[in-house]
Design goal:
Structural class: mainly beta
Largest sheet: 6 strands, antiparallel, barrel
Shape: elongated
Strand order of the largest sheet: 1-2-5-4-3-6
CATH class of the domain at 54-131: Mainly Beta
Mean pLDDT: 83
Order of helices and strands: HEEEEEE
Strand content: 35-45%
Radius of gyration: 27 Å
Low-confidence stretches: none
Distance between the termini: 65 Å
CATH topology of the domain at 54-131: Thrombin, subunit H
Length: about 130
């Protein structure tokens, strides 16, 4: 029984590996009734909404206006470029009104980032974004 199992295992591997060679991803097809090959995506119409270039860093946890310092709770997918020393950040309300400009510091502990207030008055709960180039 053990010998049969040992012989069937390589046979199963060969069978499945051979089947993988016959798989081809589907190719895009042209519209019915047209002889033209499929083309790339069409350009967006005028006035279409585009995604923001700003990348979400996190939300303001606490603000120390006397020291000019802000603590930011980092999002799980915060961009690494936003966490380096002297990176420019922007805080904004949920209505997307800019409340302050920040400069990231070297203080990163776990999911908390420290930042210096350059201008404006951020409030706890404000969204922090990294203006992507």
């Amino acid at each position: 029984m053990i010998r049969t199992a040992r012989l069937l295992a390589p046979l199963a591997v060969i069978f499945f590996a051979g089947a993988c060679s016959h798989f081809h991803p589907p190719t895009p097809k042209a519209m019915p009734g047209s002889d033209a090959p499929p083309t790339a995506a069409e350009p967006l119409p005028a006035g279409a909404l585009l995604p923001s270039r700003n990348l979400l860093v996190g939300r303001v946890l606490a603000v120390d206006l006397a020291q000019g310092f802000v603590f930011v709770n980092l999002a799980s997918d915060a961009p690494a470029a936003a966490l380096v020393d002297d990176a420019d950040l922007i805080t904004r309300t949920d209505a997307l009104h800019e409340t302050a400009r920040l400069r990231a510091s070297r203080y990163v502990r776990g999911r908390t980032l420290g930042a210096k207030i350059v201008s404006g008055q951020p409030a706890p709960g404000d969204e922090v974004v990294f203006p992507a180039p």
